[in-house]
Design a protein that fits this description.
Blueprint: E1 16-20, E2 23-29, E3 39-45, E4 60-67, E5 69-74, E6 77-82, E7 86-89, E8 95-98, E9 105-112, H1 120-131
Antiparallel strand pairs: 1-2, 2-3, 3-9, 4-7, 4-9, 5-6, 5-8
């Protein structure tokens, strides 16, 4: 047992928030909570909201759609993922996400290996600048 790590319980909607215009990220566990091994966050998209654009990174991105329908780009193919859907974008694989519907949509994201939240201030600033 790692004496530095403690169990985490958060109420619905709780966590560290990053507002990015029409996208909100809520980090549930990252960095010290996970010993920098993985990151868990919720991503909420307002209706008709584009994501970051096609991108790659070395970490695996796992998504579980919590509400609504999130569209995911996986390589060169878009898939519509309704509530309850599971999506895996392996590290190095081009991917993107967006909400093409008239309803708010959200997904739980598990990113591994490593912490992801340290990148969020820069990512949030980029989104806010893009949507300005």
């Amino acid at each position: 047992m790692d004496p530095e790590r403690q169990p985490v319980h958060l109420a619905p909607g709780a966590g560290r928030r990053y507002a990015m215009g029409r996208i909100d990220a809520v980090f549930k566990a990252d960095g010290p909570e996970t010993a920098d091994r993985y990151s868990i966050s919720e991503w909420w998209l307002e209706p008709h909201t584009a994501g970051p654009g096609a991108h790659t990174h070395p970490e695996d991105d796992v998504f579980y759609v919590l509400d609504g329908t999130v569209s995911f780009l996986l390589g060169d193919r878009w898939v519509d993922a309704p509530k309850g859907s599971f999506v895996l974008a392996p590290g190095g694989f081009p991917h993107d996400f967006e909400n093409r519907t008239d309803e708010r949509a959200g997904a739980l994201n598990f990113s591994a290996p490593g912490a992801f939240e340290p990148h969020m201030p820069g990512i949030a600033a980029w989104f806010r600048g893009r949507d300005a």
